[in-house]
Design goal:
The chain is of the alpha+beta class. About 15% of the residues lie in helices and about 30% in strands.
Length: about 220
């Protein structure tokens, strides 16, 4: 059963649902069955350094690429090495034209075909002990109609998990998007679960538990 705005508010106030900061912080309130999620500080906007991987593979005798073996790569090591902050806008206009994602002051410029990862400002989840709820991250339909694709895989926030949500953001439309910290970029719906999950199933912790950055958990 999905929670209404009243029940979502009650779940946050009773700590059955973790949302830090809560919707009131953004003066955005509650929709009928969801709350908005907002973009984090700009240093948490990240892109893949694909050109570096391609150059390394070329030196190793593998032309083309960059290649990524999805069946065998290790997320923690790969993201630590190749996930970097969005670069500043180059002074050379020719170079800037070649980039699909770059930073301009406190804004991210996302051109058609561009892709980046960016966390939510909110820490979201449910208590590790005796969780009663499950949550889902969805894009906002009006943004999607412009060609902005947000969080297009793994929408489920499993019971007993919490952290900032790493959003996959892609521009499939004809516009150049300007994204700023604090923008309402996605929404969260919440539902009850039929019974509390078996604690034994959570012995192996998720690699993203308590993450505060698209690459995982940063010190501090």
């Amino acid at each position: 059963m999905y929670l209404s705005n009243r029940d979502i508010k009650w779940a946050i106030e009773s700590a059955k649902l973790i949302v830090i900061p809560p919707p009131e912080h953004f003066n955005s309130g509650y929709d009928e069955t969801s709350i908005d999620l907002h973009l984090d500080d700009i240093e948490h906007a990240k892109v893949w350094d694909a050109s570096r991987l391609r150059d390394q593979q070329k030196k190793a005798g593998t032309p083309g690429g960059p290649y990524l073996h999805l069946g065998s790569f290790e997320w923690e090591n790969f993201s630590a090495e190749y996930l970097i902050r969005v670069p500043e806008e180059p002074a050379d206009p020719m170079v800037a034209d070649s980039l699909k994602v770059f930073r301009r002051g406190n804004e991210i410029i996302l051109k058609p075909g561009g892709f980046l990862l960016w966390t939510t400002k909110e820490v979201v989840g449910t208590p590790e002990q005796n969780p009663e709820l499950i949550a889902f991250v969805n894009a906002k339909s009006t943004r999607a109609r412009t060609g902005l694709l947000v969080h297009f895989t793994a929408p489920t926030i499993h019971s007993g998990w919490k952290g900032k949500i790493a959003l996959e953001i892609a521009n499939l439309g004809p516009f150049v998007f300007i994204l700023r910290p604090g923008d309402a970029i996605a929404q969260l719906t919440v539902a009850t679960i039929s019974s509390r999950p078996d604690p034994e199933l959570r012995k192996k912790k998720s690699a993203t538990l308590d993450q505060n950055d698209p690459g995982g958990k940063l010190a501090g």
